[in-house]
Amino acid sequence: ANGRAAISDNKEVTQDDLNSVEESAKAITLSNDQEILHVLPKDYEIDGQDGIKVPLGMSGIALDGRYHLITGAKNARDNIEKCIKNCDLSVNGFVLEQLASSHSILSADEKDLGVCLVDIGGGTTDIAIFNSGFLIFINWAVWIYAVATDRIIDASLGYFIMPILIVMLGYFFFKKKINKKKFIKILLVIL
């Protein structure tokens, strides 16, 4: 998505200008069941000069920004949040899986140089490609394949089983404490 805004009166790009451009890019039409999860900047342009990564403090009249908008289904988010709250846990926010993986293992230099992150899981393999510090590709190939071949349940099992395995790993191997009420809820989910 693209956004555009006039640079404020002092003709120097401020954080408010960046926020205005981002809001302009987010002004797209989505179906009622979708919402924007992430707004990831690709690059900026000031008065025709493109390829700018950090425009703060630069001078000009018009600021354009190109963004990667990541959307998700509201109902899916709501259902996941309800499940988590039913386990007496709280939700601080939602992050695209590939982004979460990249934040945990990739440095800013690696993202700047260009890197392909392949997260091989129990049921799915996710791919994220970064170049010049920006996320340029994420895969949805597993879901496209699952829908095309009527194997949605097979693809979904990885998303169901992996969180349970992670909780069990934390409990049994790393001796993380779980109160009795939470432990019973986890056992019921497993059954």
Give an overview of the whole structure.
The chain is an alpha+beta fold and 191 residues long. It is 42% helix and 27% strand. It contains seven helices and seven strands, in the order βαβββαααβββααα. It has helices at residues 15-26, 74-86, 97-105, 108-113, 141-148, 152-172, 180-190, and strands spanning 2-6, 34-46, 49-52, 62-73, 115-120, 125-131, 134-138. The strands form two sheets. It has a four-stranded antiparallel β-sheet. The chain has a three-stranded antiparallel β-sheet with strand order 5-6-7. The longest helix is centred in the last third of the chain and has 21 residues, at 152-172. The chain is elongated, with a radius of gyration of 21 Å. The mean pLDDT is 81.
**Distance from first to last alpha carbon:** 44 Å
Briefly note the structural class of the backbone: alpha+beta
What form results from the Cα inertia axes? Answer: elongated
pLDDT < 50 runs, ≥5 residues: none
Could you report the average pLDDT, rounded to the nearest whole number? 81
Number of helices: 7
Number of strand segments: 7
Q: What are its keywords?
A:
single chain, 191 residues, alpha+beta, four-stranded antiparallel β-sheet, three-stranded antiparallel β-sheet, 7 helices, 7 strands
Briefly say what this structure is.
The chain has helices spanning 15-26, 74-86, 97-105, 108-113, 141-148, 152-172, 180-190; strands at residues 2-6, 34-46, 49-52, 62-73, 115-120, 125-131, 134-138. With 191 residues, the chain is α+β, with helices and mostly antiparallel strands. The strands form two sheets. A four-stranded antiparallel β-sheet has the order 1-4-2-3. Strands 5-6-7 form a three-stranded antiparallel β-sheet.
